[in-house]
Design brief:
about 180 residues, four-stranded antiparallel β-sheet
């Protein structure tokens, strides 16, 4: 009786082993492939619900719209202040533009080491001026930003910066534009 049970068991061991390995392989696949995907899908569904709630009329649409309109007004105000006033750049001559450069430098807390006017270009009333200064990063940024507000009168052509222990050594080529006398 035991011998017949062993023979029958020996005949069934291969199919039982294959079946057990298949179940083990399926469980491993489910654990490492399907479970992480379910977590990703769940997180994506949560994000989708969040964005739907942001866009729905009854939740935050009005709040977002008001904030955007406020930002647009603020941007328009800043752009309006950045536009140069006509008195700023309709200078009477090169000396007025150089005075404008000096006043902008004082506003940015910059002291010039040298201010070297270059030769005027032949075809237009452009006067290049090389400015040498020692300053900090923040002061330099304020100064260049103030020059960029008057592109009709002043334009920064080249900028060379060298870092030093006591600040920055800066060389700037600024072109001053004058209206030709009619």
């Amino acid at each position: 009786m035991q011998a017949s049970a062993f023979r029958r068991f020996a005949g069934e061991i291969i199919p039982v082993t294959v079946f057990s390995c298949t179940i083990l392989l399926f469980l491993a696949l489910a654990r490492f492939a399907l479970v992480p995907q379910a977590a990703v899908l769940s997180a994506t569904a949560v994000q989708l619900d969040y964005f739907k709630s942001l866009l729905s009329d009854r939740n935050r649409y009005q709040e977002i719209r008001v904030r955007l309109l406020d930002r647009q007004r603020l941007l328009a105000d800043v752009a309006g202040r950045a536009a140069p006033a006509p008195a700023d750049y309709e200078a009477g001559g090169l000396s007025d533009l150089l005075q404008l450069l000096i006043s902008r430098a004082k506003e940015a807390d910059i002291r010039f080491v040298k201010m070297l006017p270059q030769q005027e270009t032949a075809h237009r009333a452009e006067y290049p001026v090389v400015l040498e200064m020692t300053t900090s990063y923040h002061s330099l940024a304020r100064f260049v930003a103030s020059l960029e507000r008057t592109p009709q009168a002043l334009r920064v052509e080249r900028l060379a910066v060298t870092a030093q222990k006591n600040g920055l050594d800066v060389h700037i080529l600024v072109t001053c534009f004058l209206k030709k006398a009619q």
